[in-house]
Amino acid sequence: MKNLSHILLLLVTVTTASFAQSAFGTWINRQYNLSMTLNQDGTFVLVGPNGQINGLWGAQGQLFQMQDAMGQISQYTITHFSQNALHFVDVNGAAFQYERQTPQTQEPVTLLAEAQGLQLTSAHVKTAVGIVQFVIGQQIKPGEVDELTQSSIPEFKTDPQEFTRQIQGLQQSLNTMQSLQDPLQIGTLRQMLIAEFHKATLPMAETDKPLLIRIINRYVKVMAYDATNNLALTDADISAMIDYVQFSNQLSGMQYTFTEAEREQYSQQLINDFAAAPLQQKQFLCSASLAWTLVKANWDNMNSMQRNQVQQNYAGTLNTQNQQTSSGNVTQYDIDKLRRENMAQQNMFNMMNNMSLQNHATMLNTIENFGGTGNYWEVTNSLY
User: Fold this and answer.
1) In contact, 77 and 89? CB cutoff 8 Å
2) What b/e string do you get for 308-321 counting C-beta neighbours within 10 Å, with b at 16 or more?
3) Which of the two ends of the chain, N or C, has the fewest CB atoms closer than 10 A to its terminal CB?
4) Hey, how many other C-beta atoms are within 10 angstroms of the C-beta on 287?
């Protein structure tokens, strides 16, 4: 063990030319939000959500090794290498895909209008676009970006100071969101924005609402609203909550798919029971589309081995948490029996909230333990 550092340094000097002469520099892994810098002196710096690791690296043929300051060695097999891409797998089969970090060119800022010593630029419109896309969870159409650009000019000229104040507030909100790492905190801030927009424009006819709100409303519909806590339940969150519950059930071994009639029934029950739900459950429910996006994106990126590990670990953890005994295999009869008993004893709203409160943290921890990421921004940036 005491000679491992020397061996790694030797590996650097005997690394094949095609790799050694091109691998130095900084590489970015967007899936796990990692930055890996490989230096010519054989040292590396790995920065991720959990902190920074320094150590030594080496490569020979398809073998790639990293040793941290404590002497722990991680070994990988290189599966692809080019000027701008480095892919390798670890001993458990988990895949890591890095791309070379290149200097980012800043988008040119276009001046759109001036009034009272203030300026309206394309950067201001970009802030509005960012808020809309965060709220709806997807990119808007290029024509809608043009709509926002054109409508902002007369609005700015009418009251430059108020317009600038509002844009600065939106930018501050966007910066705050992007600084958060906990998906539930991000979700809470997201639903606060939706609720504020809904409350501010509730008395207005749709055609009289600001364009930013009208574009949001094209993608997201508020189905229930808690004025006391300023929480808005959207159709996207309802649909995501049902998908989330179904996925959780399937991880637990119950391979049952909700019918369209059941989804409609559960959706209506969520809407009807929303007002009476505890605050914490409302907050999670209003963040369901964000939570489901994170979980689904991780699952879709996992290989079969990782999926099996997640399923086994998650199902085992739930059995321990719920203190349930199981005979092993879950039959269709068992599924139908459990479903009938559940519907007889409690409504779908309680079932969903019990799942969310007890098991959401378990699900995210399980996913991260087997190669996933809890970084919502990295997931959504890859989707965009």
Assistant:
1) yes
2) ebbbebbbebbeee
3) N
4) 25
- Considering only residues 192 and 355, tell me which one the structure prediction assigns the higher pLDDT: 192
Q: What are phi and psi of 359, to 5 degrees?
A: -120, -10
Q: CA-to-CA distance for 197 and 209, rounded, in angstroms?
A: 10
- Using DSSP's 3-state secondary structure scheme, residue 84 falls into coil
Q: What pLDDT score does 376 carry?
A: 52
Model confidence pTM above 0.85: no
Tally of CB atoms within 10 A around 301:
17
The SS3 of residue 331 is: coil
pLDDT at 215: 95
Q: Report pLDDT for 291.
A: 79
Partners of 47 in beta bridges: 35, 52
Q: What is the DSSP letter of 15?
A: S
* SS3 call for 278: coil
10 Å CB burial of residue 141 (0-12, 13-18, 19+) is exposed
pLDDT for res 355: 47
Amino acid at the residue 70: M
pLDDT at residue 178 is higher than 50? yes
Mean local confidence (pLDDT), 112-132: 92
How far, in Å, CA of 374 to CA of 365, rounded?
A: 8
Rounded to the nearest angstrom, the gap between the alpha carbon of residue 333 and the centroid of all alpha carbons in its chain is 36
SS3 40: coil
Strand partners, 115: 118
CA gap 231, 286 in Å, rounded: 7
Three-state SS string across 295-306, please? Answer: HHHHHHHCCHHH
